[in-house]
Design goal:
mainly alpha, 25 helices
Length: 500
């Protein structure tokens, strides 16, 4: 739709009004509602801030309402894949509990993992799974669920466990050639995939090493109320009494991980995991299903029971509070609040973009760049800003990469410096923002409020800091042939073709 010619460009002050209002409302919500802020108050804050931006757009900037509405719908459409995955993961959690997959992982996890190195091991395992699958989201939605449950059994605060899982998942995601964001960043910046991955070693390597050291220290010095050996044995006994712990159940998660590693999209792979989980429940958990059906097991009754579990979650009463708390969860309906948050976040981000406010603020940040150090710093700030305002990590990669691409060439910097910077900030900080689709997803899947796990996402916090440090000291910053810069096409060819 054409926007009328009398449309005005927003000023910096005008752009900051809806953002300032949102920040004020969010702070007030956290102070008033604490962890419950994401269960309605933040969604209302995002909607009101979007309305304010829309009013400014229509009455001050003279933008037709129909154009704004179209841009909002497009913005929300970008998040629909995440919404569908969330619904499927909700079902996956409850079905994998009912089938015995999650109880099996917890049982043997308690057997082999020492509580003192649990956070370290959680991070390493998440690294490996995400590196193999290329997906931080799938990692949290599968192995992350089991690790959270094991951590609860050890009485390790769930915020710490979630931080370890997310740190490992995002490192593996960034360094995997199977990752969509790892492919997107070099494509937008103008370099190739493996040059990009090799260049990220300089920033992501130190960040994950420091994170792992942090989790080791935290595990050894954190003074929590760890369960005694007898209490752990009691938990294992209750699990064994209620579920058939057949090792063949591990075939299901292994098949799902293999499918994702083979580049099968996450949505069908996870949906297949739900179906396999239902089949596993019928094969291995006949006694449990019979008990839940009041002793009258029929195929029709089992089908209805599994559909109900997939929709509304699994619930069990064993008499053991730890087990009941661990296993009574999941279902599509458990993700509705997170979906609400994502939709209102994309409403706000879409409205700012439609009004030209995001572009105005990003250009203002770019104006302050004058060399390698400030350029990398400006890129990091812009990516974080995009994650906080546009509420989507893909926008936080695409928009800054497109904005800064010419500037990096102007200063004779290889495009891999740009692709690394946008990944170091655009990818990893999305999970730290409660109303971002990444933050909402991981919080919803792991069942841990964003602000609870944020302080323990060591890798996600350190990654942009290390990147800025390297840029400021001009370390690992690769330059291109300045003589080619008179010809942009030749300069780009030189940039994409030069070796590490």
């Amino acid at each position: 739709m054409q926007v009328e010619s009398d449309r005005r460009e927003p000023s910096i002050l005008l752009c900051m009004i809806p953002i300032g209002v949102l920040i004020a409302l969010m702070v007030f919500n956290v102070l008033l509602f604490k962890d419950n802020a994401t269960f309605g108050p933040n969604q209302i804050a995002l909607s009101l801030s979007a309305l304010l931006a829309g009013l400014i757009g229509v009455f001050v900037l003279k933008i037709p309402y129909r154009f704004l509405e179209g841009q909002i719908i497009t913005s929300i459409g970008m998040a629909l894949q995440a919404v569908l995955i969330l619904f499927v993961v909700g079902s996956l959690i409850s079905i994998w509990i009912a089938s015995g997959i999650v109880p099996l992982m917890i049982y043997y996890g308690l057997e082999i993992i020492n509580p003192k190195v649990f956070l370290f091991v959680s991070c390493v395992v998440s690294c490996i799974v995400a590196l193999c699958t290329g997906s931080s989201w799938s990692t949290s939605g599968t192995i992350g669920i089991a690790l959270i449950a094991i951590g609860q059994t050890f009485n390790v605060p769930v915020g710490m466990v979630a931080g370890a899982v997310i740190s490992g998942a995002y490192f593996g995601d960034k360094m995997s050639p199977l990752s969509d964001t790892t492919n997107l960043a070099p494509a937008m910046a103008g370099t190739d995939l493996f040059t990009h991955i090799r260049h990220m070693v300089y920033s992501s390597g130190p960040a994950i090493v420091l994170a792992l050291i942090g989790f080791l220290v935290l595990g050894f010095f954190y003074q929590g109320d760890a369960l005694s050996g007898d209490a752990i044995a009691d938990v294992q006994g209750v699990i064994q009494a209620n579920f058939n712990l057949n090792l063949l159940l591990l075939v299901v998660p292994l098949l799902v991980v293999t499918m994702v590693a083979m580049r099968i999209p996450a949505l069908p792979a996870l949906l297949f995991g739900v179906l396999l989980g239902c089949l596993a429940a019928l094969i291995f958990q006949g006694n449990l299903l019979t008990t839940m059906l009041d002793g009258n097991f029929t195929l029709g009754g089992a089908y209805g029971l599994l559909v109900g579990i997939a929709a509304d979650g699994f619930s069990i009463e064993t008499g053991n509070e730890v087990i009941d708390g661990l296993f009574s969860r999941g279902g599509m309906s458990s993700m509705l609040n997170t979906v609400w948050l994502i939709i209102t976040a994309m409403l706000f981000g879409g409205m700012l973009e439609a009004c030209g406010m995001l572009q105005k603020l990003a250009n203002a940040i770019l104006a302050g760049a004058s060399g390698a150090g400030t350029l990398v710093g400006s890129t990091i700030v812009t990516c974080i800003f995009m994650n906080a305002t546009a509420s989507d990590q893909y926008i936080a990669i695409v928009v800054p990469a497109r904005m800064f691409r010419a500037a990096y060439l102007k200063y004779g910097l290889h495009p891999k410096n740009l692709s690394r910077a946008v990944e170091d900030a655009g990818t990893v900080t999305s999970v730290l923002i409660p109303w971002n689709s990444g933050g909402a997803f991981h919080s919803g899947v792991l069942g841990v409020p964003t602000l609870s796990y944020l302080p323990f996402c060591f890798f996600n916090i350190l990654s942009p800091i290390v990147s800025v440090f390297l840029g400021a000291l001009n370390l690992t910053i690769t330059r291109i042939n300045l003589d080619a810069l008179d010809n942009p096409e030749m300069a780009m060819a030189t940039a994409t073709g030069s070796a590490e």
